[in-house]
Amino acid sequence: MKKILHVDIDAFYASVEQLDRPEYRGLPVIVGGSSNRGVVSTCSYEARKFGVRSAMPVALAKKKCPQGIFLPPRFDRYVEKSKEIRRVFSAYTDRYQTVGLDEAYLDLSDYENAVPVAKEIKRRVRKETGLTCSVGLSYNMSLAKIASDLKKPDAFVVIRPEQAMEILRTLPVGTLHGVGKKTQELLSKKEIYTVEDFWRLSLEEAVQMLGKMGHALYDRARGEDDREIVTERSPKSSSRETTLPYDLYQREAVAPIAFSLLQEVEQDIREEGVIPQTITLKIKYADFTMRSKQRKNEYGVPWGELLEELLDAFDYSSGVRLVGVGFSNFAPAEGERYEQLSLFSWQSPFYGERQEDQ
Ligand code: TTP
Ligand code: MG
């Protein structure tokens, strides 16, 4: 039997803000707005008491919590903290799969007793990053995630095989990973609100109603999930460059070359089946100095648009002799398709608009 740990940082962006600015600790901190098209990214648990939630318009959050401290997101800082968290994981296993910046599944099957290890990981995340997390330990990914969500924040929950059905039974069906708002609506028409209600559906009915996901949900509702952890084997970056036969002094001249490189790298990553989040334009000048600039794909815009922006950001007057275009910062190559899709459909560089039917 597998031993899977799911770790999820509590109120991640807001907790980082409170960590960096102690004067905000214990207060309703709401992160969002500005680069986020006016919606809440997340908020501290103090703000949740007022009914503020992720993805809520900031204007509504202000109504619900006028005394809230509204802060713009600082993605670079969150990425930094995310790396610190991963460093802790890697001290225990190579077999971990990250989801976004603040969640991960760890395979602890090789530990004879995973409970003390899980406790230690939770403690070390706190000690080494200053952030609290909720962790769930169980015998598959689906149940580990359910466990970590059960008693947030700062939770430690184990679901043992003999407890699984009883715990699942009373949960809202929306707790199952893969049941989004749309699926919930569909199910509510059949008066299915809890996991126990969902048990009424036969496998055939579940598949008929929900397609392929129906099968996975049929299993997950019964505590079954045979997904394996997908470790990040993806290449660190993928790029193409070309040295020019003569120096170029104008953006107009460099742009078509950059675009042809972009096409090639896009082809490369399609073949590899990976999804990058960052594009880089590299330029070597006639005097051999090298410059590179990057853009994160925040809104799922075409890469060409970001490349245009990057081209605008360079100076061409000293002559360009080499152009390179690269992708990096890859999302897990495999994993679940819905998790990949969600990367590009939403406001932050790392999150999808929690896909309706994950
Ligand atoms: P979550 O782990 O879903 O949320 P959280 O960490 O803020 O709170 P908790 O886990 O305690 O419930 O998401 C992690 C980060 O992702 C979150 O801090 C901000 C970002 N995020 C968004 O930007 N938009 C969203 O709709 C969600 C859900 C998260
Ligand atoms: Mg979290």
From TrEMBL:
Catalytic residues, chain numbering: E103
UniProt site positions, description: Substrate discrimination: Y13
Cofactor binding notes: Binds 2 magnesium ions per subunit.
A Pfam family annotated for this UniProt entry: IMS_C
A molecular-function term among this protein's GO annotations: magnesium ion binding
GO BP terms in the entry: DNA repair; DNA-templated DNA replication; error-prone translesion synthesis; SOS response
Reaction(s) catalysed by this chain's protein: DNA(n) + a 2'-deoxyribonucleoside 5'-triphosphate = DNA(n+1) + diphosphate
The entry's keywords: Cytoplasm, DNA damage, DNA repair, DNA replication, DNA-binding, DNA-directed DNA polymerase, Magnesium, Metal-binding, Mutator protein, Nucleotidyltransferase, Transferase
Compartments, record wording: Cytoplasm
EC number: 2.7.7.7
UniProt function note: Poorly processive, error-prone DNA polymerase involved in untargeted mutagenesis. Copies undamaged DNA at stalled replication forks, which arise in vivo from mismatched or misaligned primer ends. These misaligned primers can be extended by PolIV. Exhibits no 3'-5' exonuclease (proofreading) activity. May be involved in translesional synthesis, in conjunction with the beta clamp from PolIII.
UniProt record similarity statement: Belongs to the DNA polymerase type-Y family.
The protein's name: DNA polymerase IV
Organism: Brevibacillus composti
Protein encoded by which gene: dinB
